[in-house]
Design goal:
Number of strands of chain B: 11
CATH superfamily of the largest domain in chain B: HypD, alpha/beta domain 2
Shape of chain A: rod-shaped
CATH architecture of the largest domain in chain A: Roll
Largest sheet of chain A: 5 strands, antiparallel
Oligomer: heterodimer
Radius of gyration of chain A: 22 Å
Largest sheet of chain B: 5 strands, parallel
CATH topology of the largest domain in chain A: SH3 type barrels
Number of strands of chain A: 5
Strand content of chain A: 25-35%
Distance between the termini of chain A: 58 Å
Distance between the termini of chain B: 37 Å
CATH topology of the largest domain in chain B: Rossmann fold
Order of helices and strands of chain B: HHEHHEHEHEHEHEHEHHEHEHEEHHHH
Structural class of chain A: alpha+beta
CATH class of the largest domain in chain A: Mainly Beta
Amino acid sequence: MCLSIPSKVIEISKDKTMCKVDTMGVIREANLMMMGDEDIKIGDFVLLHIGFVMNKIDEKEALVSIETYKEILALMDEEEKQQAILNDNNCENR
Amino acid sequence: MKELQLHNLYNNFRDGKTIKAYAKIIAKDAQKLDKTINIMEVCGGHTHTIMKFGLPQLLPSNINFIHGPGCPVCIMPKERIDHAYILAMQEDVILVTLGDMIKVPGSNGSLQNARSKGADVKFVYSPMECIKIAKENPTKTIIFFAIGFETTTPMTAVLLDQVIKQNIPNILFHINHVTVPEVMKELIDSRDIHVDSYNNKIDAFLGPSHVSVIAGSKIYEPFPKKYGRPVVVSGFEPVDVMQGISMIVKQFIENRCELEIQYKRVVTYEGNLNAQATIDKYFEKVSLFRWRGLGNVPDSGLKLRDEYAKYNAEVVYKDILPISEIEDHKLCICGDILRGMAKPPECTIFGTACKPNSPIGSCMVSSEGACSAYYKYGNLL
């Protein structure tokens, strides 16, 4: 019910009440009446819910999360490598 | 990565490796816990993600999910569905509602059943479609049966705003909007009476995603401060949920009890102030709203302000709408499930008399209900 879809704004109507968004290749119209006049620009990432733009997606925060995940994966890889070396050193058949 | 692409917003937050990495972090941290922690994911969207991606299987045994009441379709009491049914059966009425309502059974049947008996019921993607329907059918009264939490309420408010500004004479509203913090309070208050006998309790909340986009994380302030329950507002994707769980576990091992936001890419402390102002202009709280499975919850419902009573279908059609309450099925244990005292398979009618196509209890009604999610993804457990 409360699900919403990340999309990219590609066009804004002159009266700024409607916009066109790209949702992974599907182009659709979305209502902008819940947003302030200057809130949304072409190229912004937004969340869509039942035909409305409900908020802008903060690009910087999204990138920070993605970077955090990359760092965690790199750390895990390193830990796994260290563990593999340790297991190898302790292997009785060596 | 310097520039965000649309696909990153999907793929990076569903990445299997990242989910597993968080599972490892949580497992390591959870070893330091001195007790099981019960985390309520309030929102049905989270329940769906948790079950769809089999997240309970990835977590240690001392992390337990309690599936909350955050599915506005599920918790709609039968008497409200009956209102929709009765209104739809009026000759001059077109009843419009969101697709989620199609199969929800009232005492006479669902809106789908009403349609098969000749009622004019339209299921729409967006409330704004009411305006087009009203203009195309000037001799009919369009009644928008409005459902949803804070996420969906502002869209109903924008529709009313446009009905007034465009002077559209034939749109009325039947309001069933409910609010999240009040039911969270109710669950804690009602739980603490039962804690000793059930030996189970809500230790922390995974805060809803899109309710918080609109209302802001500020609505959860009382929970860490007054009720001693940490809240982490988390996104709907599986990586979001795992990171949210990890943040909750860290609060426990570091002896913190705070309100935090994992879903920072869209949720702020203040929320969408334009949307909040529009809601406040047209809606006010009702002192009691009855939730299917939970009963009366104080201050948890909204209604149109008195100055907009002429748009209120419950006022206009008050002579034909019954006010009596309809009790839940006696064998149904949805109330206990929503309070975290039972899991769906513990119910005697789960998967037998009560199935997604013929739901008896609230938690089976929509795909976001706990029973429906267990039924659909149960083979993962």
